[in-house]
Amino acid sequence: TGRIVLVERFNQLPYDRTKLSKQLDAAPALLKNEEFFKSAGVELILGVDILSLDVDAKSVSLSNGATLKYTKALIATGANPQKLAFIPGHDGKNVFTLRTHDDASKINASFDGKTVVIIGSSFVGMEVAACIVKKAKSVTVVGMETVPFERVLGPVVGEVLQKFHESQGVKFVMKATSKEFTKSEDGHVHQVVLNNGTSLPVDVVIIGAGALPATSYVKESSSIKKEKDGSIVLDQHLFTGADGLYGAGDIARYPLPIIDNQLTRIEHWGVALTQGAIAAKNMAADTNKFSFTNVPVFWTAQHGKSFRYSGHALFYDKVILDTNGENVDFTNPKLAAYYVNKDKIVAIFTVQRDPLAAQVAEILTANIPLLGSEIEKAISDNKSTNSLLSSKLSK
Q1: How far apart are CA 179 and CA 100, in angstroms?
Q2: Where are the alpha helices (DSSP H) in the chain?
Q3: pLDDT, tens digit, for every residue of 258-303?
Q4: Cβ atoms 229, 213 nearer than 8 A
């Protein structure tokens, strides 16, 4: 075989980033140690940025002055957190984003006993809120939606999760955006000014307002298609269209079978891992014969409770709640939310009912029909969908 080279902008071996927002003081959990890369014949270039990737010349220019020519290449540079650079004061000394272990360490050293404002009410922002609320003086989440998680999970589930977080001490200012981070002479932000006129005193600002694919170094070419957000369009084989060039992870916009092969971009850890493996098989083969068809699955843990999501509800017209026939306890919620599009189940979100999410993932993977009307009947007849899902998989 030829050379296999891994270029990493940070001076660390690849590690599990999913833990960072859930446990800020966690040591980096290496995916593979240095000995693994040596034994596999992988050359490591750490602490070096990619300046440009010329897809037509099949070359990569590095910040250390080196240029690499490639036969096959994989773009897997992930995404960069939104820094809200259009907001005055975004560069304050006590304003943080979270992507790396160093970012997590800085946040972890700053919040104890302090007044914290988190900008963004989706998964990263809410994971950090859950992680720090017991030690911070106060934690306030500012979100542009009506309730947290609304864009992904909808208003009904979002309201449940907001009340759950509030029961644990997290405060919310919703339907609001940041207008200014007011800095003192020492460069620290002391208040967050919102578009509704509210001013929030603050010691620490954490921005969890989404991320954009890290692909600015990829030169424009007629051989590939780059979307406005920087994502790169791939086919089912994770091939870009440019000779020898593939993609995986947060940069990838690809056809997803469970939503009729509509192009989508999914920022899930498991998706990135599997896409990398599929792309590698195609890179090593003579032809592109391996397709990525996996059902997306992700998890999170907040205030000690497990959340699971299977599928992808890019579009849905109904959400059906299965609460096991009980009223939701907002201090200890247990539920399953089924997302329906034209009577077809396209996704499930669960809180403390992990097996249902796993079963729906199996059902979607096997292309077993699962209808919203069936879910509603099971809840009406049995107050739960447990038996229905088990019967689907036993046939």
Answers
A1: 26
A2: 34-39, 101-108, 123-132, 150-167, 269-284, 354-365, 372-382, 386-394
A3: 999 999 999 999 999 999 999 999 999 989 999 999 999 999 999 9
A4: yes
